[in-house]
Amino acid sequence: VQLVESGGGMVQPGGSLRLSCAGSGFNFPNYDMSWVRQAPGKGPEWVARINNGGDRTYYTDSVRGQFTISRDNVKNAVYLQMNSLKPEDTAVYYCNAALVQIHYWGQGTQVTVSS
Predict the structure, then answer these.
(1) How far, in whole angstroms, is CA 62 from its chain's centroid?
(2) What is the enclosing helix (H) or strand (E) of 59?
(3) φ and ψ at 114, to 5 degrees?
(4) I want to staple 108 with a disulfide (CB 3.0 to 4.6 A). Which of 46, 92, 101, 103 is the partner?
(5) DSSP for 65-93?
(6) Could you report the per-residue pLDDT of 47-65, keeping only the tens digit for each?
(7) What number of other Cβ atoms are within 10 A of residue 78's Cβ?
(8) Cβ distance 17 to 23 under 8 Å?
(9) pLDDT tens track for 80-96
(10) Quick one: which of 6, 36, 14 has its CA closest to 98?
C-alpha cells in the first residue's frame, strides 16, 4: 500500500498550490479520502474529506471556500486545490485513505506560506 503526496512547496501569501496524492496497492475507489495537516508545534488537524464516489465533500471551517478537494478514481488520485493561502496554512499535509477502521497514510508534503 502506498500513498504518495506531491505538489507542496513555498508560496507567498495569497498564492495557490495544488496538492496531489496517488494511491496504489489497495482498492482506491472504495475508500474515503482526506487531507490532514500538522503545523509546526501543533497537533494534526483534519482539513477536508471526500467520499468514495466523489459526490460529497466536507471541510473544516477555517478552509471552507478556500480549499477544494477532488478525486479521480480512474487515476487513483486525490487532490487539494488551495487558494488564497495564508501563513497559518503552513504545515505538512498528509493524505489519508479510510474504509471503516482501515486507515492508510502518506508521508506528507510540506507547504510553507511566507513572504
Answers:
(1) 14
(2) strand 57-59
(3) -155, 145
(4) 92
(5) TTEEEEEETTTTEEEEEE-S--GGG-EEE
(6) 999 999 999 999 999 999 9
(7) 31
(8) no
(9) 999 999 999 999 999 99
(10) 36
